[in-house]
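#struct-pred
JK: can someone run the complex with zinc ion? inputs below
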Amino acid sequence: MRGWVGAGLLAAGLGVGVAAAHYAAALPDSVIAKPSRQFGLPFAGAPGPNSWLLGQGYGNTTGAYRQRRSTYGNLQGVHAGLDFSAPCGTPVRAIGDGVVAEVDGSHGSPPHNLVIDHAGNLSSLYGHLRVRSPLRVGVRVTKGQVVGQSGDSQGTCVSAPHLHLELRDRSHQRFFNPLPYIAADWDSLALAGSFGRGYEYDLSAPRKWQTPESQPEVRRGGRLLNEFANPWPPSPGGAR
Ligand SMILES: [Zn+2]
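RT: done, structure tokens with the ligand placed:
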């Protein structure tokens, strides 16, 4: 679906629309903290089928590829966050010290979302929360503090219960792979569930973007990164 991107460009050109009104220019690398495992996981305790597991990875996932021109059309066709499967109501924790920047702001990921600003011009977004976070904008939070409850992107608590976690620059224009920023045993965590086995192939470059660590940064509104000439699994409607 190309209409979404076209509408976004039109809105930007006219200087109107949510995106144009809300978002500042992307920040340069020089003012953004480098990844140094400075953050923690958004859930406490050990992973497992009754607590939390990694679901969809960040990046060029097969799921994002299938919806690259629709749901992810404004994010270069890429899943710009990490999905953690968890029962509804699981306490969600701040991944680092920071300040609450937005409660149910205009970032989608319904039914509720939360943004926390961190040092180094980084912001974390917690999406698909079950209920509105009780925190107020401007409040300080510490790493590991409970900031909300996980929910379901479809609102049922049985169809797709998970937390969508993003790491962005403060302008909300750039989206980073959270893995090198979060201290966790990713290799062990990836052994359970489908995490790390669900990336779309470009058979013309079959090693590209096939590991959790090697996924590309995303720029809001940039061109699609995965309009592959030879995709696998095949594109539902053909390659183009
Ligand atoms: Zn997600």
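RT: quick notes.
The radius of gyration is 17 Å.
Residues 3-232 form a domain with the Glucose Permease (Domain IIA) fold (CATH 2.70.70.10).
JK: thanks, will look after standup
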